[in-house]
Amino acid sequence: MNRSSETTKKRIWLFLAIIAGALFLLCVAIVYKDSRAKKYEDVVIYETVGFVSDGAPDETASGVYAHFNDDGDVLFDVFLNWNEKDGIRLVCDRDVSVSLSGVTYRDGDILSVEAFEEIPGEINVDVLGSAAGIFRFVGVNDLPSVHLGTYNKDEGKEYLTQEKGNTASGFCTVIDKYGDENFAGNCSLSIHGNTSWNYDKKSYQINLESDSSILGMGAQRKWLLISEFADISFLKDAIMYKLSADIGDIYSPEFCYVNVYLDGQYEGLYLLTQKIEIDGGTLHGLNDLEAANDKMQMMGGAPDVTGGYLAELGVYETMTDEDQNLIFETPHRWIRIKSPNNATAGQKEYISGLVNEAEQALYLRDGQKNDSGKIWSDYFDTASWIRQFILQEISVNLDTEYSSEFFYVKENERMLYGGPAWDFDRSLTDYINFIENERLELAVRSIHNNSVSIPEKDPSGIMWLKALDNHKDFHEEMKEFYYDVAEPKMRRILVNDAEKWLEDIGNSAGVDAIKNGGYDFTEDDFDDAVATCQKRGKQIIQGFNDRLDFLHGYYRNESDYVTVTFVIPTSRFNLVMPVMPGDTIGTAALPLYHDSMDWYFGDELFTTETLVREDMELTQEKGR
Fold it and tell me: pTM here?
């Protein structure tokens, strides 16, 4: 072999060796990067390092979120209840230290840093060595905070979210907005919600050991932390719960905005509220059949069947995961027994019989009696159902009688009471989004309680609320209550409360958005997030004001209107719009659905220029 070919061969082998070495180093780097990430997350973060505003209890310390940004740099983000004027105290094991810009800190030492400042540093653990990264401290302030911890490290957030019903033992510490401890005690934790179960930001249920007051709210054992994941304004639930209480619902839940931490990690901005429940919840004045049933099993005897009961209106698709022994139906509805959740066969038979009797009377015309010789008002408490009607009508709630709408029965009373109010995060704008049109005028100008039917039920199975409103005396009393009580109360809430809430939650809403929206953020992203929440909140406030303006004018002159009903295919919703005879429906109110603009009144194509002179039912199929 000549020298030239040998040289060529050596070069080829050298080239291959370099490639192989590079691939090996790349693999090592990837494995090392993954192992570092695992080490940071599983060991350093949760078990050994925490930071807390100086003066706050150790159990409220926030851990470190270690992750890689888009450039592959290690970031140590710390979200904690803290104002920049306050120092931050390090909480860690004796064999751990943290270095920031070359200065080493140990347990109990005080750091002085600025929010969002990028500080090079290290976490040093004797057994594991050092982990270098860039620290960022983000202050979540101006609101109370709820700190939850699980006692068993195998029952943390990952366990809670694996399967519905998973419950962990832990503790709850609440710090008020002044930094003082408001509550501390043991509790059990679980994930709350049906639809919201699938949200990235989870809602939580807290069961305390006994009835306890938190942040000035009435004493209860069961509390909820609502994520408000579907409501970027964080205002809808708060506005409607306040209205419900102000217009006379004694069981309406109290609430408070809080920042939530679980096992030292910031979860976000939440609405802390009391649970709608007889046992340990807001309906504390009702007879607790769950406790009575437990006692009966131990001591023997016949179960009480007359009450109290808490039940939920819904459709079957929302109940498929529930205990079918607690589900019953009527010709027009499906009903879920919420309490007692250990209902006996006799109790289910009693409440089912009462509800079917009441519904039979409800759908009869004024003056007509059911098989028991009674009329609708013998079964439905007018005052409470008027409140329910008005709450749903003002809010244009997407979930009306579909999910999370309750009624209850008192002991020894064969009467259905509407309420308590619950779950308004999908109201107003979400009604618009449902029919794929972002224009607010659609929600503002619709008659919400005309627009829902129950699939797979009797065609006359319109909502209970609409069936109630079909009775003239109910309707007239409802309008009087709207003008005299509900509208003035709502106007005051929008001016006096909602604007203040929006200001109070600004900082926390911004931190929530950047924390739950991804970690590669800057201070500018935080400012943008705060601005977005504020803008959305003001839109919601204005939307509610516009809604009140519309209802005010409509109820004063409803006999002067005709209606245009858009029959939306494959939906439980139809959109019903009142129009003055001789007017057009307007360009902003023509709904879009599945990218189609074609709506027909019989054979006639309906457009934004069509003059409306009579009640019209529109479909997307010509000649229907």
Answer: 0.89
